[in-house]
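cron nightly-structures :: item 1 of 1
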Amino acid sequence: MATVRLTVSSAPPASLKAATQDCMLRLHVKTAYQGRSLLMNQFRNTVIRAGLEALYFSRAHHLLRPIFAGVGAIFMLHHVRAGRDAAFQPNRHLEITPEFLRSMLSHLRTQGIDIVTMDEVHQRLTERHFARRFACFTLDDGYRDNRDFALPVLREFDAPCTVYVASDFAEGSGRLWWIALEMVIAKASRIDVEIGGTAVHLDTTTAAAKQAAFDRLHTWLRGLPGEFDVQREMTALCKRHGIDEAAICPSLCMSWDELKTFADDPLISIGAHTITHCNLAQQTEANATHEMATSRARIEGVLQRQILHLAYPYGDRIAAGAREFALARASGFKTAVTTRPGMVFPENARHLTALPRVSLNGNYQDARILPVLTSGAATAMWNGFRRVDAA
């Protein structure tokens, strides 16, 4: 078998870059929110899966690791629970099984990667301690399954994590509209809604039709001017289809009393995730600041501990940008994490409120891809081989 030799430099060789870009089937091409259809959503997932597998089978991730693994990674999770059998699961990407989490933790331990808190991520970046690579686990929203299924696995590996809590979710008054939308469509055989002044009738009789309807409605809702608009439309849909929207949050999220006990575990740190889980970029500067600062104050008041780390709701480019990064800094947060994909590099020390994360995505729960995820190869290609994306 031929021996492959690679000279490591600050950028990948042009031939390798071109070959792997082709191998990834143009993974860098991103799908626009507006007009996204079921076909495009399926195509995007297929492209990502094919890209991850291509990196694995070509072993290109081994060649790219010295360049793009960075000094560490912040992993993003939401739900950790047993897999579901339902054919229609539009929010599947937000949940992984305890077994997949265990596989990732085992992989990191065998690679000699330190599993650290967000406090230590901050310390290593600011003090430039990069002798060993690190991994940090973060879970968004404050779901009860984080306590029931994630924590026991984390204890097996003595692995700390940070859970970012939306204070309205802990109050039991929050609105998880993306879950409500899934429940509405799962129950209905047809959805009638007005979009942009036009009556739209969506067939939801099959799993494929339901997914197409979810994609269209999710895109529409995320594009509305503000959170009150989203809530108005979701409340109407839930009422029309007999879904108790108010019961969803307390059924899934930990209450303040539960969080108090949860936060007492030495492996658990708590961060802020705003009050209402709103799109901060759609808020006025005053409202965005209020969402950040008040959520922090509420959590500190209940848990009696400092809250120094923030996660932006949604966290993508249309929900968190330069203004939000500056507001988080001004609000006193030591770090803030986005959902922009990427590994952590020394340069991220200049952008501590715009840190990237690597999603542990429920659509791609294959132990073979774990070395790909930790190599930084996939996120490098997604980012066009940029090391930092903080603009």
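cron nightly-structures :: done
Confidence is low (pLDDT under 50) at residues 1-11, 15-38.
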